[in-house]
Write a structure and sequence with these properties.
Blueprint lengths: L31 H5 L2 E6 L14 H10 L4 E2 L8 E2 L2 E6 L4 E6 L13 H12 L17 H4 L24 E5 L2 E5 L7 H4 L17 H6 L7 E7 L3 E6 L13 E6 L3 H9 L5 E2 L11 H6 L3 E13 L10 H9 L3 H8 L5 E2 L23 H10 L6 E7 L5 H15 L2 E7 L2 H9 L7 E6 L10 H4 L13 H11 L4 H18 L2 E13 L22
Parallel strand pairs: 1-10, 14-15
Antiparallel strand pairs: 2-3, 4-5, 5-7, 6-7, 8-9, 9-10, 11-17, 12-16, 12-17, 13-17
Helix pairs in contact: 9-11, 15-16
Keywords: Signal
InterPro entries: Peptide/Ni-bd, SBP_5, SBP_5_dom
Protein name: Oligopeptide transport system substrate-binding protein
């Protein structure tokens, strides 16, 4: 979902192919003195959970986690292959056993040194299912995960509970010395080093294990270029430069305030008035007639990102269990019309399950993404129709109302279903409902890749008990093919196997790809230079005033 930071030394392994470049910068030379003690205000939304890396799966909290922590590897802003960050080296001879050496002398924000045990302890905590880390399944490659992680056998509403794990720690993790640890995977996995820049794999300080995770997450201690100052719910998160940070991507400014908005139009007004220094995505109201270009001039930026908008189904609701119904809904949506009339051509109609900017993604493999209302009607009849109201939910604190209204209207017009869209006030509440399996209708979803490989578009979303498989979709054939793909000895073999898994997903339509993101951003007049990372978020270490 979230990646950050610029590149340093190369990983000592073959890595995934580069993404299409998505970084950008504005012209002009910043004044060093102005930057050194300067501050910026950036747009944000209330995070769903306290800020624990392995329990943060959404972008509101995710980008803040990315700023507070530095991982073993990082993803360049220009979309290139992953590079080492905190890792000195990552070595393997067989893509099964990895020896990871970290750089000596780096610190957490509480002054303690980052050691190899901080990675091992953090990964073990996340992989132990009773701890409830939403990103726990990201450690499924590691030997012993089947002993530390168990699942609820009959879903969240069933009477049974997940059996207790037989082990508390992953057998595939071993501390060698203060700067070195060894990772043994259950099977050779070529993509494993590519994943290590994702926030699930961040180290945790010893202090984390002396308190409740939610207490730590309200006052997080990371090891990144900025440290936490304060958090006022639905208002402001304050961050400041970590002066003891000694890796390459040091801050050029001092303070970053993340203002938590409930209305994108209010944020845009602040941007135009120079009261907000960066807004990642301008509201759809600013797209008509390229109004945002007129409003912002050279303060505006346009880029593409490896992100896709979806409609997700609560498959745990029996009304949405039939794949024919789900395919009917998908075929009734005119994606081109939404792109043209709602987004004025700034978004592209989705036609594949993984964003085509992602290494290993196959373009055009979503047969359910076609607009075919006649076939949709036939499938709906075969599924026995739909009784009652179909409500499409979205979070109302970002600019989703127009396109969600359009989706609901198309379903109503083309299928005769009593459909409408309804906003949930905030993203945090919306996500809490999703994670509690309380959704009673299809709902807005999106996927911003966590790391540059197609594996990230399959395992978290479509494998049983995947970390972001929020609708509880399950297909044993998909699981088996994804497991085969994950354990492939080369990236090429892995990508081919994932393509077969996606063919099965396409038959089931567990969700609906709607559009590929294009991104229109804006910054204030005081920012003289900035870069966007490869998923379109501001790289705060690049900002000059």
């Amino acid at each position: 979902m979230r990646v950050s930071k610029r590149a340093t030394s190369a990983i000592a392994l073959s890595a995934a192919a580069a993404l299409v470049a998505s970084g950008c910068s504005s012209g002009g030379d910043g004044d060093t003195a102005d930057s050194a003690d300067g501050s910026i205000v950036v747009h944000g939304v209330q995070p769903e959970n306290p800020l624990v890396p392995s329990n943060t799966t959404e972008t509101g909290g995710g980008k803040i986690v990315d700023w507070l922590w530095t991982g073993l590897v990082e993803y360049p802003n220009d979309g290139g292959a992953p590079r080492n960050a905190l890792a000195e080296s990552i070595n393997t001879t067989d893509s099964k056993v990895f020896t990871i050496k970290i750089k000596a002398g780096t610190k957490f924000h509480d002054g303690t040194e980052v050691k190899s045990k901080n990675f091992v302890d953090a990964w073990n905590w996340a992989a132990y299912s009773p701890n409830g880390a939403q990103n726990g399944t990201f450690f499924s490659d590691i030997e012993g995960f089947d002993k530390t992680y168990t699942s609820d056998p009959d879903g969240p509403d069933g009477p049974k509970k997940a059996p207790p794990p037989s082990a508390e720690k992953l057998s595939g993790l071993k501390v060698i010395d203060e700067q070195t640890f060894e990772v043994t995977l259950a099977a050779p996995t070529a993509v494993f080093p590519t994943k290590l820049g994702y926030s699930a794999f961040m180290p945790l300080p010893d202090a984390f294990f002396t308190q409740k995770p939610e207490e730590f997450g309200r006052k997080p201690i990371g090891n990144g270029p900025v440290k936490f100052v304060s958090w006022a719910d639905n208002d402001l998160i304050k961050l400041t430069r970590f002066d003891d940070y000694n890796l390459r991507d040091k801050m050029k400014i001092k303070d970053v305030d993340v203002k938590l908005y409930q209305d994108d139009n209010a944020a845009y007004a602040d941007l135009l008035a120079n009261n907000l220094d960066f807004m990642e995505v301008v509201p759809t109201s600013a797209l008509a007639g390229d109004k945002w270009k007129t409003d912002l001039g050279d303060r505006g930026r346009s880029t593409v990102t490896p992100s896709t908008a979806f409609i997700a189904f609560p498959i745990y609701d029996k009304r949405f269990k039939d794949p024919k119904l789900r395919r009917a809904v998908s075929l009734s949506i005119n994606r081109q019309e939404i792109s043209d009339k709602i987004f004025f051509g700034t978004r592209k109609p989705a036609d594949s399950w993984a964003n085509p900017l992602t290494p290993g993604a196959k373009p055009g493999n979503c047969t359910a993404c076609k607009f075919d209302p006649e076939t949709a009607k036939t499938l709906l009849a075969e599924a026995g129709g739909f009784t009652g109201e179909m409500v499409f939910y979205y979070n109302a604190d970002s600019a989703h109302k127009d396109w969600m209204d359009a989706v609901a209207q198309q379903v109503k017009t083309n299928l005769g279903i009593n459909a409408r869209a309804e906003g949930v006030p905030t993203f945090a509440v919306f996500r809490q409902n999703v994670n509690a399996y309380k959704m009673t209708g299809p709902y807005r979803a999106a996927w911003q890749q966590d790391y540059p490989d197609v594996e990230n578009w399959v395992n978290p979303l479509f494998v049983t008990n995947g970390s972001s498989n929020d609708g509880l979709y399950s297909n044993p054939e998909v699981d088996a093919l994804a497991k085969q793909a994950s354990g492939a000895p080369s990236l090429e073999a892995s990508h081919e196997a994932f393509a077969k898994a996606v063919e099965k997903v396409d038959q089931d339509v567990p969700s609906i790809p709607v559009y590929f993101y294009g991104q229109q951003s804006g910054h204030s007049e005081k920012i003289k230079k900035l870069e966007l990372n490869n998923v379109g978020e501001i790289d705060i270490t690049s900002v000059e005033l």
